[in-house]
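Researcher: Quick test of sequence recovery. Tokens follow.
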């Protein structure tokens, strides 16, 4: 029988409970997917905890997965039964063995990209595409700071920014993570537990600062991120793993004519055509070697709580997948 992880109340990882579910035949414009790998992201932690109240309860969390098309509904001609596909969705429901899906979200997987890689990295890679090509167009003459540079998004972000020719400075929590970040394209790393990153960035840039900061940490780094920006610099906050950011006075930005963005991927790919283009660009980045990722760390779907525990511990930056 199909199973899914159902959240009935917000809370810790223990609220992730496996239940038997029914999955109907696909309707017009839908496909039924037998999922082979499900991605685990920090966004899921925010949803589970109630920090993001974007999933109606009871509900099935999860924004991305990969699998095999099991059946197609009327009017579906983009994919066929037996196709390997992946997807990202704002409608959740990915923590499941089988599901119905809008056919417009299904992206065929190239042979060079595994189900596990796609399931655990498509959302991340699309996020990076949004960050370095749309929110702030990274160029070879830029110096950028990436917080959590050895994390799941951070590794891909450093790789893509380096590919575009930028000088990349990354903050990390340990010497081991510094090695990982440098392997992913960081030119310099800062061990933020040992040194104030604002002082380190000032030293590395001879006091000039950086053109952009990519900050997924939030509360702990936001103020310092503003401090290290050049005049007319751009702070892109795309996560808040340390907690939400305090309200910001416009006069703070005016001091150096700074720009702050808080992008949400799903707003950038709400249109199906744009979604498909971003997804295909992300998969091509893996196929072409622009992006690489560590081997995925599998957890049984029923052990979603264990996967969340690893992610929240800060040791799951490579890729965590749930296997139905």
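Model:
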């Amino acid at each position: 029988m199909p199973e899914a992880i159902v959240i009935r109340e917000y809370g810790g990882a223990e609220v992730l409970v496996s239940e038997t579910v029914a999955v109907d035949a696909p309707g017009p414009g839908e496909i039924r997917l037998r999922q082979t790998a499900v991605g685990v992201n920090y966004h899921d932690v925010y949803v589970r905890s109630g920090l993001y109240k974007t999933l109606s309860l009871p509900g099935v969390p999860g924004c991305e997965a990969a699998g095999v098309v099991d059946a197609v509904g009327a009017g579906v001609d983009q994919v066929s039964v037996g196709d390997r596909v992946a997807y990202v969705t704002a409608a959740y429901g990915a923590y499941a063995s089988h599901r119905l899906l809008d056919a417009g979200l299904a992206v065929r997987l190239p042979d060079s990209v595994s189900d596990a890689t796609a399931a655990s990295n498509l959302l991340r890679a699309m996020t990076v595409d949004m960050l370095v090509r749309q929110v702030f167009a990274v160029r070879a003459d830029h110096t950028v700071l990436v917080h959590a540079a050895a994390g799941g998004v951070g590794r891909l972000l450093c790789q893509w920014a380096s590919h575009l020719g930028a000088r990349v400075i990354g903050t990390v929590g340990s010497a081991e993570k510094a090695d990982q970040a440098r392997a992913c394209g960081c030119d310099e790393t800062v061990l933020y537990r040992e040194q104030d990153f604002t002082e380190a960035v000032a030293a590395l840039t001879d006091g000039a600062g950086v053109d952009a900061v990519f900050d997924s940490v939030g509360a702990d780094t936001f103020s310092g991120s503003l401090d290290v920006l050049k005049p007319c610099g751009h702070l892109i906050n795309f996560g808040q793993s340390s907690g939400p950011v305090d309200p910001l006075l416009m006069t703070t930005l005016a001091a150096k004519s700074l720009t702050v963005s808080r992008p949400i991927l799903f707003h950038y790919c709400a249109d199906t055509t744009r979604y498909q283009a971003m997804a295909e660009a992300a998969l091509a980045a893996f196929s072409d070697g622009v992006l690489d990722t560590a081997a995925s760390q599998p957890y049984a779907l029923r052990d979603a709580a264990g996967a969340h525990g690893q992610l929240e511990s800060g040791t799951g930056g490579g890729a965590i997948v749930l296997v139905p």
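The radius of gyration is 20 Å.
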